[in-house]
């Protein structure tokens, strides 16, 4: 280990024994999720399971009005959904065979090993984000022990893309076209940090905590201290989750402050006048069009920011973040297919619970629209069960 890495380890050694902090026994439900929020989650989870195809992959995208299914696919979004399925199968034993078949397809079709590392290869490319989601899927799986060697190889595959300064490279196997590495890393860097930390929570192997902490130092400078020059909303939720975990492990105030800086900035995007709750501001079109998957992942990040505010006793921010979460979920609920569509020849079960991409022209329901929403509500439910949340009553 280099001198720099040794210094990082000494400065940011965990202050708690390795554990799943979000599942601590004292964190049980005191304030429950509103009934309407539970309904969003239940319908979305049921649709995700019905949306698993013959190869045990999720149908990537469907148009409920026409019955069309997209010929496109995206391995990273499939793997995000695989992780959610793995987590669902922890509590729902009936889903474990489905989770196993889904993971078996991934391992047999996309997983590769070489040079002591494991990685996802899809269409001749291997991206950091997909490898991070594979590791997250392993870490969430009730069958983790059976895949422990593969998980170790995947974790080392992520570290193989780490530079000496702690930053990441976006591709293990690059595409044959030009790409914007800086843009891709606004997604992939935080995903990699979260994956390494979740792997650490599962194994207690301090090497992965050390390397995640080292990378966090680089991105605290890049994305937080230099937020005025480098802000892009995609990195906010992933880095929020990572910094929340690092705060849990180290109690270092810089991680709490980073969470607040990022999410205070994110709230500038939330629509409060036209379609209330969505994350779209026409004054900043460079951040993308309205999209339910973005709404879902931003809401998940805000759930972690809400929990951070509770932990640090910042009731003003906790209230502000909870309000933002609730109006976001109300908007997402308005995008969820629930009743029979008169214009559609499909049976209602084919799309009931799916979430359309936006309220404008895009009627398609993509798998990650539902997956991100489920993850957001699960996180919120965990954090509303904390003692600190007992005086806060969410409304929808």
TrEMBL record:
InterPro entries: 6-hairpin_glycosidase_sf (IPR008928). Residues 1-26 are annotated as: Disordered. Residues 1-10 have a biased composition (Polar residues). SUPFAM superfamilies: Six-hairpin glycosidases. This is Uncharacterized protein. It comes from Mesorhizobium escarrei.
